[in-house]
């Protein structure tokens, strides 16, 4: 009896200890690539080529970041990316939620065919060239709005939000109608606030996609430097660095002395610095949305 009682007390301790050690190892494995990237970004370029950089820089330097910001276009591109991300996220969330609410109403007779049409756009695309001519015919080339209009509605996000709206009790909406509220008022006062978890999740997806996008800037606005985005500028910098790979060192664009190894960067070091610069803004936003993000991921997982 004493043995079984002792074993019963020991099992929770063993499980908690194993669980703690396992989670610590999992966190370390997850964080290591990013910590290593930060270490490489602060390490001297020529020394990085030797390898062996793990969690701490061996030869400290800020030259990699100076090379990024020395072009003079990064700050303007950063503002364009911020404006694009904020506007795209707000419009996508609001318009997609309105569409999802409309298609969730059983009394709307066209809800099924319109839903099918949106789903088909997820599987079939006209391709790059027809899209380019469409953007051209809409007079959106070399315009800031080319970043906004094509991303205002997302079929996948609409389906996710519509699924979440389906979990809202119909009696709640009926009560609002009895009180005299119209569809738009119900949407703004009832549906939109209750969808906050899923909207925060979708907002994070949309913001990350808009922030990381560079190909549309390359296709549609490459002739307008004032419309260049941060990711596109970093991509150009990385491409120029990689093209100079035959030279063991790469200039930072401000007349560096090539005889000074401390003042030089390499493709590996500049790539790490670019990764940090591009990811830090999104990492600063994520903690504020984490609680909603976890809830939003469970959309549709439980049916009653």
Automatic annotation (TrEMBL):
Belongs to the binding-protein-dependent transport system permease family. InterPro entries: MetI-like, MetI-like_sf. The chain crosses the membrane at residues 12-35, 78-101, 113-133, 145-165, 186-211, 268-288. It is a multi-pass membrane protein. Gene3D superfamilies: MetI-like. GO terms for cellular component: plasma membrane. It comes from Paenibacillus borealis. Residues 78-289 form the ABC transmembrane type-1 domain. This is Sugar ABC transporter permease. The lineage of its organism: Bacteria, Bacillati, Bacillota, Bacilli, Bacillales. It is found in: Cell membrane. Pfam families: BPD_transp_1 (PF00528). One of its GO terms (biological process) is transmembrane transport. Keywords: Cell membrane, Membrane, Transmembrane, Transmembrane helix, Transport. CDD domains: TM_PBP2.
């Amino acid at each position: 009896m004493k043995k079984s009682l002792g074993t019963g007390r020991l099992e929770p301790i063993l499980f908690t200890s194993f669980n703690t050690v396992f989670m610590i190892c999992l966190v370390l494995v997850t964080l290591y690539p990013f910590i290593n990237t930060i270490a490489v970004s602060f390490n001297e370029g020529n020394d990085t080529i030797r390898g062996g950089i793990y969690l701490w820089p061996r030869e400290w330097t800020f030259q990699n970041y100076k090379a990024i910001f020395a072009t003079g276009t990064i700050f303007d591109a950063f503002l364009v990316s911020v404006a694009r991300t904020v506007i795209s996220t707000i419009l996508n969330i609001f318009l997609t939620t309105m569409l999802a609410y409309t298609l969730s109403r059983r009394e709307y007779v066209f809800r099924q065919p319109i839903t099918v049409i949106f789903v088909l756009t997820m599987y079939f695309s006209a391709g790059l060239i027809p899209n380019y001519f469409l953007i051209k015919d809409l007079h959106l080339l070399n315009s800031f709005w080319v970043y906004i209009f094509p991303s205002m509605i997302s079929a996948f996000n609409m389906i996710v939000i519509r699924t979440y709206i389906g979990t809202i009790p119909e009696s709640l909406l009926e009560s609002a109608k009895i009180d005299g509220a119209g569809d738009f008022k119900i949407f703004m006062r009832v549906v939109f606030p209750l969808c906050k978890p899923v909207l925060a999740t979708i907002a994070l997806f949309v913001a990350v996609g808009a922030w990381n996008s560079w190909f549309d800037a390359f296709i549609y606005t490459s002739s307008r430097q004032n419309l260049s985005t941060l990711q596109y500028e970093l991509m150009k910098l990385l491409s120029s660095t990689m093209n100079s790979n035959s030279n063991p060192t790469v200039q930072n664009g401000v007349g560096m002395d090539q005889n000074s190894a401390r003042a030089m960067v390499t493709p590996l070091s500049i790539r790490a610095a670019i990764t940090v610069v591009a990811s830090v803004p999104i990492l600063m936003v994520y903690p504020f949305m984490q609680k909603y993000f976890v809830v939003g991921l469970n959309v549709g997982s439980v049916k009653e």
